[in-house]
Amino acid sequence: MKKNKKATFGKKLRKNRVFLLMLLPAVLYTLVFSYYPMTGIVLAFKKYSYTGGIWGSPWNGFDNFKFFFQSGQAGLVTKNTVLYNIMFILVGTFFQIAVAILLTEIRNKTFRKTAQSLMFLPYFISWVIVGVIAFNVLSADYGFLNRVIEAFGGKPISFYTTPKVWPFILLFFNIWKGIGYGSVMYLAAIMGIDTSIYEAAAIDGANVFQRIFKITVPLIMPTTIILLLLSVGGIFKGNFDMFYNLVGSNGLLYNYTDVIDTLTFRALISSKDFGMAAAMGLYQSVLCFITVILVNKLVGKYDKDYTLF
Amino acid sequence: MRKNLRRALAIGLVSTMTMGTVVGCSSNKGDDNGGTQANAENVQNKKEYNGIDVSEHVDLTMYLLGEKTPDFDEVYGEINKILEEKLNATVNVEFLSWGEHDTKYSLLFSSEEKFDLIFTASNWAHYEETVSLGGFQELTEDFIKQYAPGIWDAVPEVAWSQAKIDGKVYMVPNYQTEFDQDILAVRGDLLEKYNMDGISSWEELKEFYYKVAENEDGIYASNEGPWYRYFQSQGYSVTGGTPRGGELFLYNTQDPDDLEFQYILDWDGFTEYCKEAKKMADAGCWSPDVLNSTDERQVPFLNGKSATMTWNIGSCRTYAKEANAANPDWKATLVDPIEENTKKVKPYTGNGVAINVNSENKERAMMVLNEFYSNPDVYDLSMLGIEGKHWEAVGEDQYKELDESGFGVDQNCNWGWKNDNINRKEVIENPTTVDEEYEAMDKLWRENIKEEHPYDGFNFDATKVTTQVAAVEAAVGTYYNPLINGLVDDVDSSIEQLKKALENAGINQILDELNRQAEEYIAQR
After folding, report:
1. CB contact (8 A) between residue A266 and residue B473
2. A24 and A77 share a domain?
3. Same structural domain, B62 and B157
4. B135: contact with A, CB 8 A cutoff
């Protein structure tokens, strides 16, 4: 009996050897670049020194996490990180789907291609440049926006000393930069919809809005949910490049703009404590992991087919 | 037939390749033999450097910060000729660029690379953090005396004491008299307009700032809050190695008997300054965007958008000259806003060189550093480039610039071994008024060096309070920057909030540790 089983396994192996071989690079890649580096988690519980290295440095329990909670900012930055990400995900997804639908409805091919390319462009600009652009738009002295306000007889706004407007500014730049790239997935999903459904709807007398809301939106729902679930996986990770380059060291705005990543950067840039940095990474990853599991479960309750795993 | 041809070709190819490998091997072998022979020769005429055997040839690697200049290799070719002959070693220099050294410096150590020498500096170039992570070789007195007698002679006692962390030295500090205090480059035409013949005190500085803010349109008085000018005018200095660049704990450097640390949030002067700064900011002395501006310091001044520029005396001279060359009617001039105080010399640890703990040739590395530091030939090459091409000697201790384009003086981060004893001074032909002001001020300052305060050589070791330091660094940014630039709505409540935040983060434990270390330090002196 046992022998028989073994034989079948060997047989299966032989039979699918080409497929297995094709799978091998991906498996190796994941093992080397995703699983092996995870052993570095031990750093979060060690007092790292160059002489000891990752494995030889002494353990120090949960000491590396202490500074974060002792700084008094832990609750604030964790809250900021999550709220910003939720906002980015929800508003971002909304605009990406809207853009994808509008693009498919445009008949003129040249206009569509141009519009799409123009919207894609900001994706390639680095956040450092976006930071400079933002400063030149928002600055109180020479800022473009304030000149426009002045031209219309308004009073200039000092954006860099007004924390309350920053969630909107950050949201704007985030959407502006990600919209072209994000809409590609939805475009592809819409392209995949069987055109005969639209033809049938047209014959039945459906107008544009009915076509969009009764056919397109429901049919791209699975894609939307999967993409949402994937982005929830990073909900405790702040986009450091964005926050750092737009806000910089302007403490006035921190209550509204400080996220876990920028706080960690400020705390550790002068001491270069590897252990504490690793501890912060672990803190974020664990919270993200829990969130993904929970959300995935919830989605599964609604419809089993939509879950990631 | 065809098959045969193919086979023949294949055999031909294979044999050529094999031959190639064999030839390659044999030529390598030849090299090896050459090497051994050279070694054998060296053993025969044994080489010594200050009585130490250096018969075995070594190749050293040194890391500097900055960018490589076009003639760098040529200059170091010359340097290596001297090193080769004197101590049977060559040094290969690698650069960490200004943009990437913050991230790559620590990677050199965590990847356990076996390089030998590296530039370092207290506060701005990774000295304290690398020491606390165990990246540098400790330099004992015997080690320095034995392998680098030239350095031991040149570097003053106080410099070694500044380099000490927990009682041990890990770097060779440079030896040059740089002053701790910044000065201002000011628009002379505006000074004239407001009937001021200079800015020599905090009161005059305020007066000028307010006048510019009140009367000038489109030009700010400054591009930052003058916090350093304020506490320096009160005689205070930052404490080396403490959080936030030492700005939270000050000590009275003008009074050597005052051994108390002044925690700024318990100091009335800080509250007073913050209130004044808020008044200045509200009056429009500087832009409300100062915290986000990424302009380099000279930019607003050169563009005519700021009436002053605050920087060290050398940079102020450079940019005041540049401003005058472009706009002669500006009459930019140099002023010392803290004229009445005697001058504090910057810690010598502001530049230096350290030996990697993983180096396989620590002794030879120290000898090479000794040559850089104290052999005038090597020193001049590394500082100024090749004589006749980049510079020309004027007398024994001066030089004239010929062509700086290929090897810029002071651009190669060679400051690590700067040595005032053998450093050549530049002769400037046709000096401008700014040059004259600079010379006069420099001379006056050198005559007015202040009495040494015990804490001038003290450096806080943060390893016992790393958690508190990280928490303080994280908490301080929210209020501190806005406060010193006068951008908060309510000074008193912001100070109160900052105080509470720092207390929770553990500032008191840091202060206790600081006092303990300082006591120990004073007792050892």
Report:
1. yes
2. no
3. yes
4. yes
